[in-house]
From TrEMBL:
Entries under CDD domains matching the protein: REC_hyHK_CKI1_RcsC-like
Coiled coil: 214-241
Alphabetized SMART domains for the sequence: REC
Protein name, entry field: Response regulator
Domain Response regulatory: 5-119
Residues modified to Phosphohistidine: 191
Positions bearing 4-aspartylphosphate: 53
Keywords for the protein's UniProt record, in alphabetical order: ATP-binding, Cell membrane, Coiled coil, Membrane, Nucleotide-binding, Phosphoprotein, Transmembrane, Transmembrane helix, Two-component regulatory system
InterPro entries according to UniProt: CheY-like_superfamily, HPT_dom_sf, Sig_transdc_His_kin_Hpt_dom, Sig_transdc_resp-reg_receiver
Keyword ATP-binding attributed: yes
C-alpha cells in the first residue's frame, strides 16, 4: 500500500503532524493547510484519497469539496473529518458528497482502517467501542501503542512534546483572553486543545477543554475561573505524565 498517496487537509499544524505520523509508515502523503491550497495541489499532483477537515479558514471543507466535484478536479474518495459526531452530522456530510466521515478526536486505528477500506474495496473494517486497554482518567496509553505500529518512538515523543508546547501556549492565551473578555476567541482555542488532546489520548486536557468549550458555547461564564483552573491543572498533570519521557521508556 506504500504506492498510494494521501492528501491531508487541515488548518491546524499539530493535527497534520499527528496524521502524518499515523499514516506515514503505510502511505506517501502531502499536506495542505486550507481548502484553497488543497485545490491547487489536487490540480497539480496525483493522489488516491483526501482527508478533509471541515472547519478551516479561507475555504471550509464542504465548499472545497463542492469545487472539487463541480470542476471535476478529481473523483478520488474524500473523507470528512470533524468534531461533529452524531448520526445526523454524519448523514449530512455524506449527503454533501463526502465518501466517508471520521469524528474528532480521531483514533489512529479508525483513521487507518477508513483509508484502507476505501483504497481496497471489499475489505471490511472493525468498529470498536468502550474503554481501551491502557486508558486511565488522565491518559490513554493505548494511543501510543497504536502509533508504535506505524512510527518510531522518537517521532511519537516529538508529537507529544509538540503538543505540550502548544497546550502551554494555548492555555496562556486563554487566560489572557478571559481577562480581556474575548470569549468567542476562547472557544476557538479550546476547540484546538480538545481536538488534539483527544487524538493523542491526553484525557486530562481533553475533559477539561471539552467541558469548558461547552460552557463557552452556552455563554455560561459564571464558573470561568474554576474552568481556567481546571484547564491549568490538567496541563500540569500532562507535564508530569511526559516528564523525562518516563511514559515512553517502556517502549524503547
Amino acid at each position: 500500500m506504500k504506492n498510494k498517496k494521501v492528501l491531508i487537509v487541515d488548518d491546524n499544524a499539530l493535527n497534520r503532524r499527528v496524521f502524518e505520523n499515523v499514516i506515514g509508515h503505510n502511505y506517501f502523503f502531502d499536506s495542505a493547510s486550507d481548502g484553497l491550497e488543497a485545490i491547487e495541489m489536487l490540480k497539480n499532483n496525483t493522489y488516491d484519497i483526501v482527508l478533509m477537515d471541515i472547519q478551516m479558514p479561507k475555504l471550509d471543507g464542504i465548499s472545497c469539496l463542492k469545487i472539487i466535484r463541480e470542476e471535476e478536479i478529481t473523483d478520488i474518495p474524500v473523507i470528512a473529518i470533524s468534531a461533529y459526531s452524531n448520526q445526523g452530522d454524519r448523514d449530512y456530510f455524506l449527503s454533501t458528497g463526502f465518501d466517508d466521515f471520521i469524528a474528532k478526536p480521531v483514533k489512529p486505528k479508525d483513521l487507518l482502517e477508513t483509508i484502507h477500506f476505501h483504497l481496497q474495496p471489499g475489505v471490511g473494517r472493525a468498529i470498536t467501542t468502550g474503554m481501551e486497554a491502557g486508558e486511565t482518567d488522565d491518559f490513554n496509553e493505548a494511543v501510543i501503542l497504536q502509533l508504535l505500529k506505524y512510527h518510531t518512538i522518537d517521532n511519537i515523543k516529538a508529537v507529544y512534546h509538540d503538543f505540550l508546547d502548544e497546550a502551554e501556549n494555548l492555555t496562556q492565551e486563554i487566560r489572557i483572553l478571559a481577562d480581556l473578555g474575548k470569549f468567542d476567541e476562547i472557544g476557538e482555542k479550546l476547540h484546538i486543545l480538545k481536538g488534539n488532546s483527544g487524538t493523542l489520548g491526553v484525557l486530562v486536557i481533553y475533559n477539561a477543554s471539552a467541558g469548558f468549550e461547552k460552557k463557552i458555547k452556552q455563554s455560561n461564564l459564571k464558573d470561568m475561573e474554576e474552568d481556567l483552573e481546571n484547564l491549568e491543572s490538567g496541563l500540569k498533570t500532562y507535564q508530569k505524565i511526559i516528564e523525562n519521557d518516563k511514559i515512553f521508556a517502556k517502549y524503547e
